[in-house]
Amino acid sequence: MQVYAHRLGTDQEDDILVFEEPDDTVFVDITSTKDHQYVTINCNSLSSSEVRVIPASHDFERGAPNLTLVQAREPGVEYYVDHHSNTFYVLTNADGATNFKLMRTPSNALDKSHWEDVITVGPTETIDDVDVFQDYVVVYGRRDGLPMVLCHDMQTRETHPVPLPEKFCVLHPGTNLEFNTDTFRFSVVSPFAHESTFDYDVAKKKLLPVRIQPIHRKNPVLMRSYGAYGMNTDPDFRIENFPLLERGWIIALAHVSFRDFISVAENLIDAKLTTPGYLAAMGGSAGGLLVGAMLHMRPDLFRALVCRVPFVDPLSAMLQPDHPLTQIEYPEWGNPTEDAAAYNLIRSYAPYENTTGLQTTTSTYVTAGLKDQRVAYWQPLKWVAAMRHDAPATEMLLKVDEDRGHFGGGSEQDVRLNELAEQLAFLISRVQQ
């Protein structure tokens, strides 16, 4: 990956090579600090970071700039930087801060040995992102799995929580391009209300409140999860939930994977909210791997499953290092080519590797896209073929879209809604027949 400086209106042949990253497992992006004093070149893998900074005032007519390395890449250490008043603020998991913390260091002393803590969090809290302003820093994270926003005063160095209008919600930080301002913007989405936008006045500590009344009914349950890359299954607004809710379904969002997903399902049954005959699950991509694995891990637990472009043959994919994304995914799934333990672990949960002798009454709806560049269409196809051969009594429905990529069949809303309508019709017909 190469980074060039290009002057608008000139030929590409005149571009200046600024930086080159030889490691194919690393993503490279370019950003500007919030105060527009520096340009940062960020090199990130799934488990490590390396940032170089360039003064935004550099005159490229004089040639390539001297890049300043913030901190050399270390396995397992991630960090991201922004700048304010001769100080770099660093969001990092260094020093064992697995839930991340905010640190700072002088602009002329960037090495990690000079970093000092600004905000640390407790064991049930995480920091996901920070936004630097002229007089304060906004911290976005989670406390006990729920959204959390903190505001840190640059002068007093005091930190106070920002009250949120809804407890169970998804919080989206605003663009907030203005650096010198007393207010910042964010939006909130809940399962029962579409996006609402709020301005928070830092000086007055004031936020306009809203009132939302969540309602659900009992009996059939649809479980959703993703279960990979540390991503939560947020309680976002989904219009497709309402046809199920109106029919008495409960939507259960499980922030877990594999055996924990099974434990959540068993807990729903033990709490007498549902029974295996009324339990369904839905997931896409890595979430499709999770949901598809339920067929062999607990063939007795679910009545119906929907697997959208599911990553159901991870072992074959991770054994091919020349394929796109494979090496980048090693930190998440492991390298089965070199690590026997990783090979055996992936084989234990991979749906395609566990079809022989399977007996289940679970009905499954599977989708694939011929233009999918993340989960190749042959993965779900070969899984369905193996299931139909090894477990012929099991209902496996397959829909292949010739125009579909990984994220859907098109940008048109009616295309997306038609896909969802088919999947919901399948669930309703199998669970509430």
From TrEMBL:
Gene Ontology BP terms: proteolysis
Family matches, as InterPro entries: AB_hydrolase_fold (IPR029058), Pept_S9A_N (IPR023302), Peptidase_S9_cat (IPR001375), Peptidase_S9A (IPR002470), Serine_Peptidase_S9A (IPR051543)
Keywords carried by this UniProt record: Hydrolase, Protease, Serine protease
Peptidase S9 prolyl oligopeptidase catalytic domain: residues covered: 254-429
Enzyme class: hydrolase
Molecular-function GO term, any one: serine-type endopeptidase activity
Source domain of life: Eukaryota
One Pfam family cited in the UniProt record for this chain: Peptidase_S9_N
Domain named Peptidase S9A N-terminal: residues: 2-211
Parts forming coiled coils: none
Entry EC number(s): 3.4.21.-
Family from the record: Belongs to the peptidase S9A family.
Function as written in the Swiss-Prot or TrEMBL entry: Serine peptidase whose precise substrate specificity remains unclear. Does not cleave peptides after a arginine or lysine residue. Regulates trans-Golgi network morphology and sorting by regulating the membrane binding of the AP-1 complex. May play a role in the regulation of synaptic vesicle exocytosis.
Protein name per Swiss-Prot or TrEMBL: Prolyl endopeptidase
Species, as recorded: Syncephalastrum racemosum (Filamentous fungus)
Taxonomic lineage of the native organism: Eukaryota, Fungi, Fungi incertae sedis, Mucoromycota, Mucoromycotina
